[in-house]
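Known limitations

Structure tokens in this collection are predictions and should be treated as such. Users comparing against experimental data should check residue numbering before alignment. To illustrate the layout, the record for GlcNAc-PI de-N-acetylase is reproduced below. The input appears on top and the generated tokens appear beneath it.
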Amino acid sequence: MTSASILVLAPHPDDEVVGFSALIGRARVRGSRVAILTLTDGIPAAEVLWPWQRRGREERAERRQAEAAEAARLLDVDSLGILDIPSRRLKDKFQEARQAVAEVIERLRPDALWVPAYEGGHQDHDVASLLAAGFRSRLAVFEAPLYNFAHGRVNSQSFIDPDEDYTQSILVLTAAEREAKRRQLAAYASEAGNLDYVETEREGLRRQPSHDYSRPPHPGRCFYQRFQWVPFPHPRIDSITPEELCRAMGQLTGGGTPR
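Generated tokens:
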């Protein structure tokens, strides 16, 4: 999995640390150039927020941007910026995001593209997986597990199907790597309450398989559905179902699956 130049697609500011901290660190030690493109600003759209939160949305986005810059410094990578897309809206701005990724690939000519796995952790993660799959004819695409709710429990940095032969590599982090990851996570102070599920013991990476995006990634509830029992719309709760997301992704690809 050694590559001279790697482009990491982070659906939100902090995903580059959650899924790829030690992977990036080891790549940098090997001399690889690593760049990160963040696909959304990590904040829900204004109309999703409580009325009293809407005026402060831009300030929150700017704070996440500053945190991402600090995380990039700690990771020793090139930050390519953050697209002007709200969280949970990547599917709605798919073509815009895809064009941005295509332009970066054309300019940087990376050997490998790293992206979160298709695992139902967050709708933007799954859409990012679909987006990356569309570039597999141009460069090697690898995926990393971040978090999922397979088997009815929270799983961190674990592939849903670990026994499948996708040439996966599981890294056991050293004490120094665990400490570095904790420092990088701490750079996202605004997200401290949302990152307590992140483990620092291991990370994984494998060649992205040909996912069937017309079907949910696993049976049962997905990670983002855990609090959908709340009987009213809440800014912190994504109301989409896996079936709705799969239909939306099918429309993005004309009903086909990227190969």
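For this record: The CA atoms of residues 46 and 54 lie 5 Å apart. The longest strand covers residues 5-10. Please report discrepancies through the issue tracker.
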